[in-house]
Design brief:
This protein has a single domain (3-76), classed as Transcription Regulator spoIIAA, CATH 3.30.750. It has three helices and four strands. The protein has helices at 21-30, 46-55, 66-76; strands spanning 3-5, 9-16, 35-44, 59-61.
């Protein structure tokens, strides 16, 4: 499973495709204080990135894949995360 959900965080693993976006959106709505762990994420579909960007959540860990981190960090960094 590319995203593992708990009450307080969503952990992204491996490749997150467009198929995960609906569940991600539902989890974000149901858990307004939930945070995001991207450390093990290797690829993130742009629809998932847009969903995260609009949610403005705290990012607990950025991707270990440096190219992915460099691409998404500026897009997901909110004033709270700076």
């Amino acid at each position: 499973m590319p995203i593992v959900y708990s009450e307080d965080k969503a952990i992204f693993e491996s490749v997150v495709t467009i198929q995960e976006v609906d569940d991600l959106h539902e989890w974000l709505l149901a858990h307004p204080k939930g945070s995001i762990d991207l450390a093990a994420c290797e690829h993130l579909h742009t629809a998932a990135l847009q969903t995260l960007s609009s949610a403005g959540r705290t990012i607990l860990a950025w991707p270990d894949v440096e190219e992915l981190k460099q691409w998404i960090e500026p897009l997901l960094t909110t004033q709270e995360n700076k």
